[in-house]
Amino acid sequence: MxxxxxxxxxxxxxxxxxxxxxxxxxxxxxxxxxxxGVILRDNIVKIxxxxxxxxxxxxxxxxxxxxxxxFRASGHLxxxxxxxxxxxxxxxxxxxxxxxxxxGFQELLTTINEAGKFLSEHIVKCINCxxxxxxxxxxxxxxRMPGQSGSGDLFLRPETAQGIFVNFKLLNNFYRxxxxxxxxxxxxxxxxxxxxxxxxxxLKEFTQGEVEVFVxxxxxxxxxxxxxxxxxxxxxxxxxxxxxIHAALEKHVMxxxxxxYFVHKTFEILSRIGVTPEKLRFRxxxxxxxxxxxxxxxxxxxxLDGDWVEIVGIADRNDLKNHQTASGxxxxxxxxxxxxxPSVIEPSYGIDRMFLSVLMHSFTINEKGFKVLKLPRDIAPxxxxxxxxxxxxxxxxxxxxxxxxxxxxxPYVTYDQSGSIGKRYARQDEIGTPYCITFDHESLxxxxxxxxxxxxAEQIRIxxxxxxxxxxxxxxxxxxxxxxxxxP
RNA sequence: GCAGGUGUAGUGUAGUCUGGUCUAGCACGAGAGCCUUCCAAGCUUUCAACCCGGGUCCAAAUCCCGGCACCUGCACCA
Length: 488
Known about the structure:
Rossmann fold; nine-stranded mixed sheet; 28 strands; globular; RNA-binding
């Protein structure tokens, strides 16, 4: 089994995630987060959110249901729906554009009527079987929902970004008309994918963390930053290189301080949540793969089972101009003596893909053949598990009492007294719990317990009072202990 | 969406070709109990499945049709 398959199996069995609606045979493109998945995802989101809060970013939360006008202005209405063809003979579906190109036609057809007329007047052949194609249809990548009479149709947003753009003036007013300004939003996005695949990688309903950084288009500057990292970069023109981001900026591999800054920041966030740096690269998109709204884009890609998968996109986009034109509202900001419409640098995080990458990169099999999820300690769903060594002599009641106390200090803990001690360790290893706290006969005498480290299986003895002094992950003795275990 | 493959307890599988002895087997798991002085030990016991719908047949997990889902490839990924 591949790592992906093993992670899927583990996720389903241990409650990280699974396909939605399965008692009704499921619905492709939708997944539930299970009990442990919810906690793990929240922990990942928390790190992302705090990384931006501590970097002068403001947050907003806007509706997932959005009126047509917004997407007319943003270009999604036009670009997000493709004219497509289906061959009447072999049922092969293609984008109209692709079929036209293959047939040697240059014409750009944008409406269903135009396309129908063109196809009836010209012979356009199916790429697959060579039979003539006579009809085109509209394929919408956005979910459309009927609006009330007069107000027009509504759409489920395909990205959270527009909710920030349409609020630009209010947000910038809140921010006292300064630039640069960074605004973030965490929320659901929806895309009617033709063929959702690979569980959390292509969902119809997904979670995004998007940050829109509004900058002076002439400078595209956010902040200086410290950087002693070597990061794998794949520029549009050239080979994969390991490079320092500052150097990349100086050598114009990256076009602006803002892009470089957020590539660097993204690298730090991803390493922090448990994406392995060696399995991470930043690749600049080729011009022909750029989204309609973007002029440059660096994708963070994670190596998952031999494939590079995009998990974060850092794009240079220019949406405000469109909204100014469409709405008639000025989006310009006064900088020195100039009125400028800000450019936007957008780091857009695919939370579900990050989540899956963290699981896959944390997944290990130990020398005994058992699975150990080596999650960063503080993002593990449970920080610690509490066991009685034996279910007798009062060990169980003592352990249970301790558990009730510690969970009031740190709710990310669990209790288990079923099966043998070894089985319980194995259960916790599989879900990534970094510490197992065990009450044994010595505990009865001196109120001390053993704490076992997930990655080394080594133990220390520590007093109950030390453990109850604060949250598990802030415990100085445990931090010291895990440092020793991580060492040589 | 196309082509091919697959679909059996929570998980992994046997059985499907060659319909009946399948009251669907096994392992892991989970629950209860016993035992047990630290890494999936053992014992007793319990739980739990033929993807859905239709058809053929005396008889369907097994054959046929339709649907759904998953996997691989192609296309798509704004």
